[in-house]
Design a protein that fits this description.
By secondary structure, this protein is an alpha/beta fold. The chain has a domain at 1-155: Rossmann fold (3-Layer(aba) Sandwich). The chain contains 11 helices and 6 strands. A 6-stranded mixed β-sheet has the order 3-2-1-4-5-6, sandwiched between helices. Helix 7 (123-130) links the parallel strand 4 (116-119) and strand 5. Helix 2 packs across helix 5 and helix 4 runs antiparallel to helix 5 (77-84).
């Protein structure tokens, strides 16, 4: 199981490196739910995550997440200690703190310019993260950390880039105009018309062959009848000569 998970992680990391320019050290934003799950399953995030992702990692959190863990009391005291050991990234909620999930979403902005990973066990937050292109998602399942496969939003974004190849719209219009001036569009239409005309005379050639076969069969029957008549006349003549004698 470990080998297959590492293969999937390597494949998914290659997708983000090639298409979204993720580079080491990988910045991972961790919330309180992920810290709590790691503590409960005896997972050492700082030691195990770099080997799983295949590179150096910077574990980060925000002030909003730390304040949220403090407000939850003794139940998440261990998770709070783990989160405090991470680097604290500045968010825009200095005066008015928000929930941990809302803070992480704001850190991603529109296109994740800082190339953050999101590590969470919050399913609602995970669903919102999947609606953004180019955001890797980490979670814990069966006592191990798992890098989720690229979301449909990320796959669609990469496919759009491959088809358009980052060509501006004004360049696309100029290419179409050049084709019309050179007559490339007309030549394609003429070739298609010639192909349709070439397939017409096949049924006519079949009808001509049938007429020739019918005419060739008629004279053969007449010749056979003439031969039979000649044989009868030759047999009668010698009999008449014998009677006169």
């Amino acid at each position: 199981m470990k080998i297959t998970r590492q293969k999937h992680a390597k494949k998914n990391m290659g997708f983000y490196k090639h298409n979204f320019q993720f580079r080491e050290p990988f910045q991972v934003l961790v919330d309180g739910t992920f810290c709590h799950a790691a503590l409960r399953n005896k997972i050492q995030i700082r030691e195990q995550l770099p080997g799983y992702l295949g590179g150096a990692v910077q574990l980060c959190t925000t002030r909003c997440i730390l304040k949220e863990l403090e407000s939850l009391g003794k139940a998440l005291y261990g998770a709070k200690l783990i989160a405090r050991s991470f680097q604290v990234r500045n968010c825009s909620h200095h005066k008015d703190p928000v929930s941990g999930s809302a803070c992480l979403l704001s850190m991603l902005e529109e296109d994740n310019p800082h190339h953050f990973f999101i590590a969470t066990q919050d399913q609602d937050l995970a669903n919102k993260v999947k609606k953004k292109a180019g955001v890797p998602l980490l979670f814990i399942i069966q006592n191990t950390m798992v890098l989720d496969k690229p979301s449909p939003k990320s796959l669609a974004f990469v496919q759009m880039l491959q088809t358009s190849q980052l060509v501006p719209e004004h360049q696309k219009q100029s290419i179409v105009q050049l084709k019309e001036k050179e007559g490339l569009v007309k030549q394609e239409g003429e070739k298609r018309r010639k192909r349709k005309r070439a397939g017409g005379p096949n049924p006519l050639s079949c009808l001509k062959k049938k007429k020739k076969t019918q005419e060739s069969q008629k004279p053969e029957k007449k010749k056979r009848r003439r031969k039979r008549i000649r044989v009868k006349t030759e047999a009668v003549q010698p009999v008449q000569k014998n009677e006169k004698e």
